[in-house]
Amino acid sequence: MKLSLRKVNAIFQLKIKLILGNMSILFSPVFAIIFVIVMRNLLPEVDAGEGGAPFSTDGFLLSFGLIFNIAIAGISMSSSPIAEEKEKHTLRVLMTSSVNGIEYFLGSMIPILLILVTTNILIIPASGISFGEIPVLIYLIMTTAASLISILIGNIIGIYAKNQAQATLVSTPILILLTSTPVLRIFNEDFAEILNFTYGGVLANLADSFSLNSEYQWNLTDTGVLIVSLFLALGIFIYAYKKNGLDNE
């Protein structure tokens, strides 16, 4: 299958126009920032170690904001548009205009990834943590990798879903599990150990280390979880595309 950068750029430009013309697509990342700001003003400020409790308000908000943006926004922004275009048969028009599936996916994923990365950066000051308190390069690498995983998961759902309702139905249990990660890690130690081997748990560990004023140690477990999750999602996406594809839509 040939790959044309000109066609990828054409899809990229088309998606940018569609996103800017439909602000509902931007609702989730914008809401993630607003939610963190509002909750920061409502929740009491708790410092790490206060009263023996390993909890910090800033870290919790950063963790929740990241999970909300990367999980909910990442998956919904990538799954719903594919399902919508299949439902309205606009995808069929694209597939018959010499644009192949890989060009469509690349052109569609790049603007979503840019939005997620920008939101991940804006959530830092929104949560009350300064840029000087965190290793920005590690933060960007880990959150960008997690964002790519969510986009691939959304694409997989979009490939299998026949319409938007079906995409929402399939996405819901995944989103509930991912967005519950920061809370579940606090109230259940056994489940927290299991969640450490998910990319949502890795993000929560990263945010916690910043809020506890301890330097994050880039360890083999977190790196391995992100790499395995990324390649697993990519493998499933390639399998789903080869089996179902979009070229026949």
TrEMBL record:
<dbReference type="Pfam" id="PF01061">
    <property type="entry name" value="ABC2_membrane"/>
</dbReference>
<feature type="transmembrane region" description="Helical">
    <location>
        <begin position="167"/>
        <end position="187"/>
    </location>
</feature>
<feature type="transmembrane region" description="Helical">
    <location>
        <begin position="136"/>
        <end position="160"/>
    </location>
</feature>
<keyword id="KW-0812">Transmembrane</keyword>
<feature type="transmembrane region" description="Helical">
    <location>
        <begin position="104"/>
        <end position="124"/>
    </location>
</feature>
<dbReference type="InterPro" id="IPR013525">
    <property type="entry name" value="ABC2_TM"/>
</dbReference>
<keyword id="KW-0472">Membrane</keyword>
<feature type="transmembrane region" description="Helical">
    <location>
        <begin position="20"/>
        <end position="39"/>
    </location>
</feature>
<feature type="transmembrane region" description="Helical">
    <location>
        <begin position="223"/>
        <end position="241"/>
    </location>
</feature>
<keyword id="KW-1133">Transmembrane helix</keyword>
<feature type="transmembrane region" description="Helical">
    <location>
        <begin position="59"/>
        <end position="83"/>
    </location>
</feature>
<dbReference type="GO" id="GO:0140359">
    <property type="term" value="F:ABC-type transporter activity"/>
</dbReference>
<protein>
    <submittedName>
        <fullName>ABC transporter permease</fullName>
    </submittedName>
</protein>
<dbReference type="GO" id="GO:0016020">
    <property type="term" value="C:membrane"/>
</dbReference>
<feature type="domain" description="ABC-2 type transporter transmembrane">
    <location>
        <begin position="10"/>
        <end position="179"/>
    </location>
</feature>
